[in-house]
Design brief:
Length: about 160
């Protein structure tokens, strides 16, 4: 297609529209102007959301590829780390802290409870809650309602020969 013919045809259509527009009464011209502005706003909004959608699509594809490669790399790292400890004979250092239960055994049937704080909300136990734990082995946190139960450990069974 020849560009000069294309531009001439666009110019002819614009001239036809201008002639039609000038023939219209004043309220018709105002309504056409409002319609053109609304159509222009609609096109701009549509183009904006298409560009935004494409940008989100590209962003989440790149983010997904990043997490995929990160996971594969972490898997290889753990594989080689395990292979290293297997070949070298070294044991893996434990990073976990040893938490001990907060129940002390005073005698065979008497237990003293040392629980001080709720594990759910972090507030300190009331004296009534501590007494309930000691007496019936169960209490509810007065702040968040979490239930606490004591699991009394049985004496280990010994096998006699």
């Amino acid at each position: 297609m020849d560009w000069s013919n294309f531009l001439e045809s666009i110019g002819a259509w614009i001239n036809i529209f201008i002639e039609w527009y000038l023939v219209q009464p004043l309220y018709g011209q105002i309504l056409v102007l409002i319609g053109v502005i609304a159509l222009l706003a609609l096109v701009i909004t549509f183009v904006y959301y298409i560009i935004k959608g494409i940008a989100y699509l590209v962003y989440y594809i790149i983010k997904g590829i990043y997490y995929l490669l990160k996971g594969i790399g972490y898997g290889f790292f753990k594989l080689f780390e395990g292979f290293y400890f297997l070949v070298s004979g070294k044991s893996k250092s434990s990073k976990q802290k040893n938490f001990q239960t907060s129940i002390q055994d005073n005698s065979a049937n008497d237990y003293q409870v040392i629980i001080e704080f709720c594990s759910e909300c972090g507030r300190k136990f009331s004296e009534k809650m501590k007494m309930n734990l000691e007496k019936i082995g169960m209490a509810f946190c007065v702040n968040c309602g979490k239930e606490f139960r004591l699991n009394y450990a049985l004496k280990p069974l010994t096998l006699s020969h």
